[in-house]
Amino acid sequence: MSDSSGQRARHWERTRNLTILVLAIWFVFSLLVHWFAKGLNEISFIGFPLGYYLAVQGSLIIFVVLIFYQNWQQDKIDSDAGLSGDETEG
Amino acid sequence: MFKGNFIDNLPKIYGLYTGGFVVFIILMAILEQLGLGADTIGILFVIFTVAIYAGIGWLSRTMQVSAYYVAGREVPPVFNGMATAADWMSGASFVALAGGIYFGGHGYLAFVVGWTGGYVLVNSLLAPYLRKFGCYTVPDFIGTRYGGNWARFIAVIILVVTSFTYVTAQINATGTIAARALHIPFEVGVWFGLLGILLCSMLGGMRAVTWTQVAQYIVLIIAYLIPVIWMSNAQGFGVIPHFTYGEAVARITELEPLLGVGTAAVEKVAGVKIVTTLHNGPADSALYSWQFVTLALCMMAGTASLPHILMRYFTTPTVRSARRSVSWSLFFIFLLYFTAPALATLTKLQLFDPNLATAIIGKSIEEVQNLEWIKQWASVGMLAVTDGNKDGILQINEFFMRPDIVVLATPEIAGLPYVISGLVAAGGMAAAMSTADGLLLAIANALSHDLYYKIIDPKADTARRLIVARVLLIVIGALGAIVASFQLTGILGAVAWAFCFACSGLFFPLVLGVWWKRATTAGAIAGMVLGFGAGSIYLWWTYTTGETWLGLNHLRFGIIGMPVSLVAMVVVSLMTPAPDEEVQQLVDNTRDPSGATILEASH
Fold first, then answer.
1. Between chains, do B123 and A71 touch, taking CB under 8 Å as contact?
2. CB of B504 closer than 8 Å to CB of B535
3. Torsion angle of alpha carbons A89, B4, B8, B10, nearest 10°?
4. CA distance B387 to B365
5. pLDDT by residue (tens digit) across B33-42?
6. Does the interface ipTM go beyond 0.90?
């Protein structure tokens, strides 16, 4: 019993750490870079001013990749802890 | 042809459906060449698509509680992703977003960032945990996690205010499109739209809404992408303009000073406006940056608190598939959102660049006034051309347009055949209908499940519960249509308000319910009431007086509500005794992705 609760605690700790990492990246690309849009526009990226590019595309692409990455990692965390849940539910 | 059950055949069914829709478009294009009138094509597009949704709604009818509330929890992640994308992308996204960027420039892109970034919060903080919980509605989670009817009841009220604000905007949008496509008065168009919406949701609840939303997503994304790709080819930006329209942005930036963008209009025309904001002109000030990030933050936290979105993740078979469907949702939403700025940019270039045949700025007023699309839209008061300085030439400050029509008028501006305009009207209708469906269902389900079944009459049998749910659906839909026909607010204002209401009242009670075991019933009630109250009072103050505090206007009042909600919830939770062992275990259980749902037994 104590073993399984220890495993659960470990599972939750890893889940929490992953979430914190994801939210940190989210913060940078959803809020931080847009605060400096004017300055970033001085830099050119594939033909776009960078500040503008991030708002129309860059941040969006990062969000999509970030969610797929998070789910891939979370699946691993769940499997490692034997909590993936795919066998127990239809 | 179809072996096995419905779910296994989904890719085949929707593949056939998509093929059928493309054949329909080609057929319309041929008929147009043979001389079929533009009006008839528009009518056929709207009638044909709405009839298909109604057919799906009829086929999905059910008398089972779990099918009605959560589509039997058997929706595969990719399809739930499409359904969520349609649920999410409203008339505001489809019709108004590109127009907003066209007029609002960089500042408006906060909506684009906010409406995509919010899904990172949904995925990280809420969706998998709420799915594990196994609730039917969002107040169901609040009511069970915090216990007691008060928490549940307050969550129901916030949900109703939020979703109702949102749904009137959607019914308004369906009415606008139906009115223009079918040539009926707006007041009639609103009721036509409502009829279509109810046909999709009433008989089959969540199950019917799920399968119609998938169909609606396919229509709306085709309708959004085709005009942009077509225009891009015509302007020489390649088949996929998204990565190459940087040049178009540069060209607009170059033209803006020459055309004098920013000059005020000599005479104003009511209801329409001229472009005065630079296309890519973020101001170099802290206030500008602050306003950008506060708007983005309100939209993101709002995304993670909107009940009609969260409830879509209750329909997947497992916790893992709930997570997966969030990632597919964002992918499908992303397809439209990274196209909207391209559409705004290319359309603007069509009108501005003197090197393009479609340009109107710099042409003689008389010539412009004789253009077919100018006449069409001007006759309904959505566009105006005036000669403010009496020189006989159209200047940038003499061309007025309603932002909402940019997407709808783009095919005509770019000189595309009318079949594309008909397609875009069908797409706008699909976007507004699918969101209205999800919202009406969220309201009716919260009232029937949480208020009626859980609070008023816990002994009600299945048949009675489902009849109550359907009656409420009709009543709320009718109320929404009545309010919408008054046209109190614009589409966009109402949508931003809904997000701010949601994040003020529900964001922290939901998130802390999963992430903070110490959160107590009294804390959650304080968080909901004070957060929602503070946000609403600020909205009322800033809207009636026109004053703002820290530059926070009526689109951003969630920035007031959220911190109040957080502080109230934490302080009151710490002042009250910690939740008992049972609740602590409930939270632990929520965090464990394996095993059966928590609530199944009590439903």
1. yes
2. yes
3. -140
4. 7
5. 998 888 889 8
6. yes
